[in-house]
């Protein structure tokens, strides 16, 4: 997580977005961040209000009044839980994706209520959550469920062994440290073998392959996790589809952290096949981390060994 101090939440007045704002407020209260509530008036809303109330000279102000009511109602719900929390409100006519992407430059998190995102729907129609997650400069929380505040359950982060794990891992470690919860670092082994390897399933020692992968994963995680010595970190490896392996470990977790890049499929052109699948199937909130810049990808974090427990799953 970064050093800036705001958590941005997109709200539309629905109970689901109010619940997401309450969850974000609980996180902001723990970290000392400002909660930034954002509501966007659509051009359709403005046109309808102007048509419905043509006799009013200030008919155009009606959508603004409704927008302020949405923000006020959400802020009141948040203040009932956290009366001392600093809250900023923004009412805008800009496209929500553009506004949230711009605000993400100075935010710690962007939070959006998200029931689910079907892969086909995201490809054909598009989704605010997918679009913002793709372009955001900070992690994006696709919030779902009924938890109004963080809980003692662990955080799960999915790591791709072929790429620098630092962006997702540092986000997950920072949140785990802030919330005082364990972190499970998960890596999925593909059941498909590389060219030249043995491909007969009965001859493949998956247990040994997972053991070797677990050792590599633990070695990669240790230097980064050493900067958060209070976090109880456990590494886990499984064989199969990456999203399915992560979901298996996410059962009982409070949220999942994943990167926004995939491997060349149509879905990954938008977000990443694993991230898109988690957005669709996960029953807990999913935090999508932005792709780091090339300079960040090359950066290697050095530190002392953390309290890391390696567990074969």
TrEMBL record:
<dbReference type="InterPro" id="IPR014729">
    <property type="entry name" value="Rossmann-like_a/b/a_fold"/>
</dbReference>
<protein>
    <submittedName>
        <fullName>Universal stress protein</fullName>
    </submittedName>
</protein>
<comment type="similarity">
    <text>Belongs to the universal stress protein A family.</text>
</comment>
<dbReference type="Pfam" id="PF00582">
    <property type="entry name" value="Usp"/>
</dbReference>
<dbReference type="InterPro" id="IPR006016">
    <property type="entry name" value="UspA"/>
</dbReference>
<dbReference type="InterPro" id="IPR006015">
    <property type="entry name" value="Universal_stress_UspA"/>
</dbReference>
<keyword id="KW-0067">ATP-binding</keyword>
<feature type="domain" description="UspA">
    <location>
        <begin position="154"/>
        <end position="290"/>
    </location>
</feature>
<keyword id="KW-0547">Nucleotide-binding</keyword>
<feature type="domain" description="UspA">
    <location>
        <begin position="6"/>
        <end position="142"/>
    </location>
</feature>
